[in-house]
Specification:
two-stranded antiparallel ribbon, mainly alpha, single chain, 102 residues, 5 helices, Lysozyme
Length: 102
């Protein structure tokens, strides 16, 4: 997952703290496990997106021609959506991920 995150940051960043922070936050959220789910299933994937918000986020932050999986539990898709969001919104905290400890 480190490589996928690094590629997403290189292609769709920059993001505050670069690849190091992006990996740190994913590690904190999911242990770098792209198939991670919260106990209740409310949060999904590498960056633990809210399950109810994922479909709209995927639609907004991806392009159909990229051929990405629509599943939040796909590490590549989750990385790209997250990095594009963080870059466009203006930072990790503004996008909903605190940076404390990263």
């Amino acid at each position: 997952m480190r490589r996928r995150i690094s590629c997403a940051v290189d292609r769709f960043g920059p993001v505050g703290g670069g690849t190091t922070r992006a990996i740190c936050i994913a590690n904190r959220e999911s242990g770098l496990d792209p198939t991670a789910e919260s106990g209740s299933g409310m949060y999904l994937g590498l960056y633990q997106h809210a399950a109810t918000m994922w479909p709209d986020r995927f639609k907004k932050w991806t392009n159909r021609s990229w051929g990405l999986s629509k599943r939040a539990l796909n590490g590549r898709s989750n990385s790209i959506v997250t990095i594009r969001m963080v870059h466009a919104i203006g930072g990790w905290k503004a996008a909903g991920w605190p940076v404390k400890g990263c």
